[in-house]
Design brief:
CATH architecture of the largest domain: Alpha-beta prism
Structural class: alpha/beta
CATH topology of the largest domain: UDP-n-acetylglucosamine1-carboxyvinyl-transferase, Chain
Strand content: 25-35%
Shape: globular
Number of helices: 12
Distance between the termini: 6 Å
CATH class of the largest domain: Alpha Beta
Length: about 425
């Protein structure tokens, strides 16, 4: 499927932010480990989060889908061995978090996924699990999926690098309350993407488990305990809303986005500071954000260390802004669905953008034109490249259907605001 994106003169309207993918993953997995029945309101039901739901069901929790909610009967941490190999499709978050969680099941659990997922590095997590008495290994001995996990989570103390993936730390934290003994997790080196770990501890606390965090030593301590079920509403997603925010910033007009909170733990709320610095107007009201665009942005320098998922959005905005945009400190974006630094550079250059690829980011000089680009199977790239089409017109994105991984009604949402995105 292809996207044809036409030039939009203006943008206007009120829209609800899509529910947070990160919060949906965490709420499904943690409520599945809780005792009793939880109701999750406003979850994001996309390919990635459904992979988490199906993995939890395979390990013994009961999950019923009703309109705009999931009813989850928790397992109290007593999991069963899946009947078959569990296919996680393209969901790296599910793979990383469930690798530790599945050690609570007896016998062996095997996780695999699509071609892209089977390239995702897992060795740092597998090494950290050894320190906690968990046996987990790559079936091909290359540190990548398929991953096989043997039941048994003893606990104890382990080290994990903070510079590779925050999801490894989240994985250890979420399962830690069900270890046989207390768990100490020592984060070594730079702690990148820390807001994602803050989201994890936020959901853990909502379900009754408060990890002790020693800021000075960058370490967590968790005593054995059980999550308590509850009713929980998923907040709006700043990552997915970044495309709406970006479109509102780059075009003329005003967009009000509901279900976005000023005190959110999401690192990607940095998008608001970025578009403000580039020249858009940003206002907060209770539970909503108002973006007013003047039709022109200017380039800035942006450090994306704590919000790597914003890279494609900011790269696209830089491609249509006046002057130079410099994106730094985001080398970890090379280990996402694609090497996002490289794919952004590759595709933007097809649109006539003067772009330099650095090890940890991009230097972009605006001046984008229309053209034909490719998604590389990356949902964020599809939606980010759409922003360029809205500003300059005539952008065709090939293999665009992957947008539904995180924002299933993206084209409809944009069309409602007066932006023409057609799929053919």
């Amino acid at each position: 499927m292809e996207f044809i994106v036409k030039k939009a003169e203006s943008i206007e309207g009120v829209i609800k932010a899509p529910p947070s993918k990160s919060y949906t993953h965490r709420a499904i997995i943690i409520s599945s480990l809780a005792e009793g029945k939880s109701t999750l309101k406003d979850p994001l039901l996309s390919e990635d989060t459904l992979a988490s739901k199906d993995a939890c069901i395979a390990l013994g929790s009961l999950i019923k889908q009703e309109e705009n909610k999931l009813i989850v009967q928790g397992t109290e941490g007593v999991l069963k061995t899946p009947e078959d190999v569990v296919d996680l499709k393209n969901s790296g978050t599910t793979l990383r978090i469930m690798t530790t969680v599945s050690s609570l099941a007896p016998n062996y659990t095997v996780f695999t996924g699509d071609n892209s997922l089977r390239t995702r590095p897992m060795q740092d997590l597998l090494d950290a699990l050894k320190g906690l008495g968990v046996t987990a290994f790559s079936t091909r001995e290359n540190g990548k999926p398929p991953i096989c996990i043997k039941g048994g989570f003893n606990g104890g103390s382990t080290n994990i690098k903070g510079s590779v993936s925050s999801q490894f730390i989240s994985s250890l934290l979420i399962a830690a309350p069900y270890a046989e003994n207390p768990v100490d997790i020592n984060v070594k080196g730079d702690f990148i993407s820390k807001p994602y770990v803050d989201m994890t501890t936020d959901v853990m606390e909502k379900f009754g488990v408060i990890p002790d965090y020693d800021k000075k030593n960058n370490s967590f301590h968790i005593e054995p305990q059980i999550y308590k079920s509850r009713d929980y509403t998923i907040e709006g997603d700043y990552s997915s809303a970044s495309y709406i925010i970006g479109a509102a910033a780059v075009l003329e007009g005003e967009v009000k986005i509901k279900n976005l909170f000023k005190n959110s733990k999401q690192g990607d709320k940095q998008i608001l500071d970025i578009v403000r610095d580039m020249g858009a107007e940003v206002k907060f009201k209770k539970g909503e954000v108002i973006i007013r665009g003047q039709g022109e942005l200017h380039g800035i320098e942006v450090n994306l260390e704590n919000s790597p998922d914003l890279l494609p959005t900011i790269a696209a905005l830089g491609a249509i802004a006046k002057g130079e945009t410099r994106i730094t400190n985001v080398e970890h974006a090379r280990f996402k669905e694609t090497d996002r630094i490289h794919t952004c550079a590759l595709e933007l250059s097809k649109l006539g953008v003067n772009i330099k690829e650095k090890q940890d980011g991009l230097v972009i000089n605006g001046g984008s034109k229309g053209g034909i680009v490719e998604s590389h199977g990356d949902h964020r790239l599809v939606m980010a490249l759409s922003l360029i089409g809205l500003k300059v017109g005539n952008v065709k994105i090939e293999n665009a259907s992957v947008y539904d991984v995180s924002f299933p009604n993206f084209p409809q949402a944009m069309n409602e605001l007066g932006c023409k995105i057609k799929h053919v």
